[in-house]
Design brief:
Structural class: alpha/beta
Radius of gyration: 25 Å
Mean pLDDT: 90
Strand order of the largest sheet: 5-4-3-1-6-8-9-11
Shape: globular
Number of strands: 18
Distance between the termini: 34 Å
Number of domains: 3
Length: 439
């Protein structure tokens, strides 16, 4: 609140003492120019809802028909992390699905009060062992998506967001980035062309104990895959269990730039993929151990700064395959016009970290480039967040190699990567930089 006094000449002339008049004038000027003091304690809260279908539903690993299942390993969840500070409130949501399109995310956002819709970031872990949330046609005139189940998931996500906000409590943050060591991920197209960096954000309560641990790492959770006859969160479920077991509080996973094809390293010595729940446990636990190791020496940031901004992005849809999917889906993925799509790009400054969202699966070279252009001491990319439009390639990669035929067909078009990169860098450059830790 700004405090000030107004004086009228007839009162001023009553003050005969020149010295007193000067002192009063100085006091008035000082009062008028004292700015408002804005202070908001940083707070964090997290909540989880189980969304495993009962009875079990077929699962989707990508474009085409879903696959029947006979069992489940682990539970599917939606998880919401609410953060508040500097008069800003955001929620980061992770869901155990292949993707969670914006048309569904907007249903959720419309039911949330007290948070700007553009400050609700909804992502997908990209498990290949969960029901289809896109409405993929099977080529025979059928759709496997269960619309009642989709409604159920949206309702549970709203509940998780509201509970996370209700549970917010004073908190600090620990943030760190380091290489996750061990047999976790690799590039199926070229072994070593992937990002081994794992970024970890941990909310610390007033009692010094972790409230939540966010893990950001690029990987396809497809140890089991869509043809194993199993519904599962894949390696992400064991990751969550390991974080909690090691005292990290409730965990939440946000994928990274894992396109083309940064996948789980479940290769056996004989060269075949090990598609077992035990292998999900091994990789999930190892990634959890590495995340806890990386964050273990981080310094707690007290009352960290929080900033959130967003902008709309429009992409032309050149892919005949994706146009056909948008036209056939009962969810109306492309709205009334399947020749272009509009989505949301977010930039978050959180303490000394900067976060950019990716509306799909960006190839690792795009991820490396963006992290190099970002301004945080820790730079995070939230893949498959706010939308899930398939692969994102640069124009020089698009349809350039036979190896990239599939990822090119399931990319919106040749200019998708160019538009995304250009607009992301512009957003970074016109936004404030995150705070830096004093050394």
């Amino acid at each position: 609140m700004i405090v000030g006094f107004q004086f009228v000449d007839r009162y001023a002339v009553r003050i005969r003492n020149e010295t007193m008049r000067k002192l009063l004038s100085l006091f008035v000027v000082a009062c008028v120019w004292i700015p408002a003091v804005v202070w908001a304690e940083f707070r964090a809260g997290i909540a989880v809802r189980t969304v495993t279908p009962n009875p079990l539903l077929p699962v989707s690993g990508g474009v085409g028909p879903s696959n029947p299942v006979t069992r489940k390993d682990g539970e599917l969840n939606v998880r919401a992390l609410a953060l508040e500070g500097d008069n800003t409130r955001i929620v980061i949501v992770s869901s155990d699905f292949l993707g969670f399109p914006a048309v569904l995310g907007n249903r959720v956002r419309a039911q949330i009060k007290g948070i700007p819709a553009e400050n609700i970031l909804i992502g997908a872990t990209h498990t290949h062992s969960a029901p289809d949330c896109y409405g993929f046609p099977d080529g025979k005139g059928n759709i496997a998506t269960d619309l009642k189940y989709i409604d159920f998931v949206c309702t549970r996500m709203v509940e998780a967001i509201n509970e996370a906000v209700e549970k917010m409590q004073p908190a600090g943050l620990k943030i760190a980035t380091g290489n996750a060591v061990g047999k976790i991920a690799y590039n199926y197209y070229a072994d070593h062309l992937y990002d081994p960096r794992c970024s970890v954000v941990q909310a610390i309560g007033a009692d010094g104990k972790p409230i939540a641990t966010l893990v950001n790492y690029a990987i396809h959770p497809e140890v089991l895959g869509a043809h194993a006859g199993t519904l599962s969160p894949d390696l992400v479920g064991p990751l969550y269990d390991r974080i909690q077991e090691k005292g990290g509080g409730t965990a939440i996973f946000m994928n990274g730039a894992q396109g083309g094809m940064i996948t789980a390293d479940n290769r056996s010595p004989g060269g075949k993929d090990t598609r077992t729940w035990e292998e999900c446990l091994r990789i999930g636990h190892l990634l959890g151990d590495e995340a806890m190791r990386i964050i273990s020496t981080a310094v707690e940031q007290k009352n960290p700064a929080l900033f959130c901004t967003s902008q709309k992005l429009t992409f032309p849809v050149d892919s005949p395959l994706l146009r056909a999917i948008m036209a056939a889906s009962p969810l109306r993925l492309g709205g009334n016009d399947n020749t272009q799509v509009t989505t949301q790009l977010n930039l978050i400054n959180l303490g000394n970290a900067q976060i950019l969202t990716i509306p799909g699966e960006a190839l690792p070279n795009i991820g490396y480039y963006l992290k190099r252009k970002m301004h945080g001491e820790n730079n995070l990319l939230f893949g498959l967040t706010n939308d899930a439009f398939g692969y994102i390639l640069t124009k020089v990669d698009w349809s350039s190699f036979e190896r990239y035929n599939y990822v090119s067909r399931t990319c919106l078009g040749e200019m998708t990567g160019e538009i995304f990169i250009e607009e992301s860098v512009k957003l970074v450059n016109r936004s404030p930089s995150p705070t830096k830790l004093k050394k």
